[in-house]
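Long-time lurker, finally posting.

We've been working with 26566_t:CDS:1 (Dentiscutata erythropus) and I want a structural starting point before designing mutants. I don't trust myself to interpret raw outputs, so I'm hoping someone here can both generate the structure tokens and explain anything notable. Sequence follows.
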Amino acid sequence: SELTSSNLSISPDSLLAKLRSSLDPNFRKQNCRILSSAYEISISFAKNQMHLIWLFTLNNLAKYNEHI
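Top reply, 14 upvotes:
Generated this for you. Predicted structure of 26566_t:CDS:1:
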């Protein structure tokens, strides 16, 4: 299934809270693994979003230049 903003609900605040709690030495290793994969997913998702925004901007600039 495709990753979309609706089914990938990791808010920055909750992610920060989880990262802070992972600094606790008693934090279980399993939770650290889940956390790191969630972090990687959110980072890659953000990069994909930026890529789409960039392509959209370039496309609009190209259209704008045609009208000049």
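Before you design anything, note these points.
Residues 12-67 form one domain.
DSSP finds two helices and no strands in the chain.
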